Flavin prenyltransferase UbiX
Amino acid sequence: MTVASPSRVTLAFTGASGAPYGLRLLQCLLQANCEVFVILSKAARIVIGTETELSLPAGTGAAEKALRDWVATDRGRLVVCGLEQWTAPVASGSGAPAAMVVCPCSTGTLSAIACGASDNLIERAADVAIKEGRKLILVPRETPFSAIHLENMLKLSRLGVTIMPAAPGFYHGPQSVDDLVDFMVARLLDHLGVAQTLVKRWGE
């Protein structure tokens, strides 16, 4: 199935475990020639350094270069936004992309989005997506979920937010951790309308 690719996507990384999911998604979006606005929480930088060999330097320009080198593609456009860069396009309904993904999404960020906190650019960009009726996908990675987590997810789901926990399947016969990562990334790309060949769909 081939579908039109969105031209602009906001991709936020938070402090939940699961940095490889977000990095692989970034690579696939750039390979699809998307313009990707990346926002990194302070905890996300620590998690990325813990779960991968990527160490992100301070400063948006240096972080852009490090991410570009890591995903190893010169396609698409990559823009790293500061966590308090309120002039970034993603902070306004008149400038934000039509789709946003928080991957991975910490339960703290999920809670802040659910209550409309908007205390940093990740929360503000998500608030914009909700108020403008645009696609917002959250990828929580936590276990077990408490009643508080589940209530926040239900609240957001009722507002039209897609809740997609990082829970890879096994029916595609994964042979490696990368295969499990690709399963989740393929599902995210499907929901974003980006053509993907990472994992065959059920029945294919």
